[in-house]
Amino acid sequence: MKRISFLALIIVTLVSLTGCDAPCTEEVLQDKLQEVSEKMQDIVESGDMGKLMSIAAYSQKLNKLRDVNKDNLEPACEAVDELMAELDDL
After folding, report:
1. How far is it, in rounded angstroms, from Cα 3 to Cα 81?
2. Are 10 and 58 in contact (CB under 8 A)?
3. Which residues of the chain have a pLDDT value below 70?
4. Which of 10, 33, 35, 77 could form a disulfide with 24 if both were Cys (CB 3.0 to 4.6 A apart)?
């Protein structure tokens, strides 16, 4: 559960970022992070231990996003897209 709390902290941090004119705006990033959060919550609620163990690796990937460049959100959007694809494969 500590990892889920950490994930929530990362999401809140990223949601608070301001966007610029890049194709990946703050709103787009917020929507993507909300979808990741919902998918991870579904995994937690499923109780599937194999999937729960996989969440640790995803939390580490999200941890890398905390230093995102506020003037260029595109790398953050790409990382979240990759994470969503991996979650879909679970």
Report:
1. 20
2. no
3. 1-22
4. 77
